[in-house]
Amino acid sequence: MNNSAIRNWLGYATLALMVAALFMVFDYVPPEAEQGIAQLIFYFHVPLAWVAFASFGLVAIAGIFYLWLGDQLWDDLGYAAAETGMVFCTLMIVAGSIWAKPIWGTWWTWDSRLTTTFILWLMYGGYLMLRASADDTPQTARFGAVLGIVAVLDVPIVIASVRLWRTIHPAVLVTKQGGHGLEDPRMVTTLLVCLAAFTLLWVWLLMLRFNQLRTHSRMGALAVRIAFATAAADDGK
Amino acid sequence: MLRKDLRLELRSGESTLALLALSMLVLVVLVFALDAARVRSVDAAAGALWVAMVFAGMLGANRALLAERDNGAIRGLLLSPLDPATLYAAKLAAAFIFMAVAEVGAVILMVLFFNLDFDGSTVRLAPILILGAIGFSALATLLSAITGRTRGGDMLLPILAVPIFVPALIAGVKASAAALAGAPFATMGDWLKIMIAFDVLFVTAGYLLFEYVIGQD
Amino acid sequence: MSAPVVETHSLAKTYGLAPVLREVDLRMLAGTGAFIIGGNGAGKSTLLRMLAGLEAPSGGRALVFGQDTRRLAARYRRRIGVMAHESFLYPMLTARENLEFYGELFSLADPHSSAQLWLGRVGLAEVADVRVRTFSRGMEQRLSAARAMLAEPALLLVDEPFASLDHDGAEIVASLLRGAIERGASVIATAHAVPEIDGVEFAVFEISRGLLLPHAHKEEVRRGRIRSLLGR
To answer: Is B146 in contact with A67 (Cβ distance < 8 A)?
Structure first.
């Protein structure tokens, strides 16, 4: 099937890029002067952040399309995006925490980025809890879509308010704007490779999960058709 | 529509009072948790106030929609020419009024418990609290239409509402603390802008999305 | 021939994986009445809910006043009256307040007098200002009927109107249904068994295994086009 061929190809490409990324991070790029080895987490942290937010955006976009077109496909996409995004968001928080410890000495700090990510994580969690606690009906799908849209609309405001919160009361530990002092061109290249690698990983996982959900939905529809056909066949008796 | 809801509220007087009292109790808990007697702090006071407010807001939004659960009245409304946006507005208004009443009580208690003064700074809280109440009511009314019909039910509403409300919460608490400390409105400009943006955004979103959320099936 | 008030094409509905209704083809013209009978869970209420626009069909289409029921505009909903198991009444309001509220909701010119009129018609005039919470089931049912007919709907969807009604109550509701048809409205009602209503010809259908079939005991005027076992 064409679909699975694409997925396999994607899987291999992801693997290749991830290996390249790892190599570049640990072997190729020079560590930043101030933070030392721990700064390398940055090369994972940033792509994870991008993916987590992008996935969230996808949940909302899929939600809009679902409300507009009503096709179950969009709901499956949204749900897959939410689950995948949750994984990356969790990883991002963990990465952030690992980064924080050697640099600032604590496992957690309420700096603006980590805080925003945490809120995002909570919203993801809420979405998943909602879907888990309700039956598999079009109405639940609508609920999910609305929640996704509402949450995404909120994200810019969250970012703005958290940033404001933190500039007025700067955290005891000053935020390292680790991304913007990329002197060495090798750093830029590494970052780009990592971005590409994680994006590909995201897409691959997303497609896997999406396919699972699609198959599930299609099977459900098929089962309904069979039920109808059986009933019709029984009429003839 | 709102008239009917208000009349209903007044009729079921006892439970409304109980819920208001519950919101106040939250404030009391915080007084002891934060040791208000010892610490004279506008930040703590503002924080406690907003916690009680959010609590009241969730109760208020739930109740507004609860009124339609008896005898399936919600379906009666859906079957009528009433359009969902109007229904949303009515529920939002009901939740807002409930929250506003709770706010008044909470402010009074806050001033008393946190050893503050009843002066101009308290009055200047009003617009901040109103903005907060509008935003939270808008959000909670929309979300409680969702949570009311899922198995998680009432437990789910805070889980969904609070993270989304965080920006307005931060802004509200900061602005309230500033107001209590006597700062003029000009300095709170950014916070107020955030709250206004939040309100506009979520009232609009609620208007547009409510119809998808209250339909049956 | 005038346009049908209600029309369905291969209407189907599933709950989960179980088909509840299938291939329902129905056509109702103005001024006609139909009773749909069937056992519990046969799908009668489901059918009514789909016609009212409360539930979306899983397959096929339902048209009321020529409009798809999934997207019924407000001006069409105004012409539909529904009476169901649930009374849609607010227990903490009085009978009159309930009716006046619904009157306003349905944009009646004078909700107060309409409410007064219908309270009389269903025999609840004396308890007009009593809270519905204290009503017996039969009184609730009668008030619910008044609420449904308040706006003089062109289409009445009634789910088991005679359930939990005593003889007088049933008389009242029967005459209301009769009056509605004489006015030119269409009535679709459900029941467990074939009812006896004098004065009007009702078509009778049965839902069996998800199919809508003409009831074996009644031939009638102007029934809808139906797939039946006999035809195969």
So the answer is: no
- Locate the domains of chain A by residue range: 2-25+39-174+183-232
For every one of its 217 residues, what pLDDT tens digit does chain B have, with 9 covering 90 and above? 666 666 655 555 556 677 777 777 877 787 777 765 556 677 778 888 888 888 888 888 887 777 777 677 788 888 888 888 888 888 888 888 888 888 888 888 888 777 777 677 777 788 889 999 999 999 998 998 888 877 777 788 888 999 999 999 988 988 888 888 777 777 778 888 889 999 999 999 999 999 888 876 5
Range of the domain at B112: 2-214
Question: Which of A142, A154, A162 lies at the smallest CB-CB distance from B164?
Answer: A154
- HSE (CB half, 13 Å, CA atoms) of B65? 26
B-contacting chains (≥3 CB pairs under 8 Å): A, C
Q: What total of structural domains would you count in chain B?
A: 1
DSSP-derived pairing of the beta strands C6-15 and C18-28: antiparallel
Mutation target among B12, B70, B212 for the C interface, most CBs of C within 10 A = B70
The Cα angle at residue C184 between residues C182 and C189, in degrees rounded to 5:
80
How big is the CA angle at A98 (ends A92 and A99), to the nearest 5 degrees? 90
- The single-letter code of the amino acid at C208 is S
Neighbouring residues of A107: CB distance < 8 A, sequence distance ≥ 6: A97, A100, A101
Q: Are A175 and A49 in contact (CB under 8 A)?
A: no
Contact A153 B205 (CB under 8 A): yes
- Reference B214, options B151, B144, B145; nearest CA is B145
ipTM: 0.84
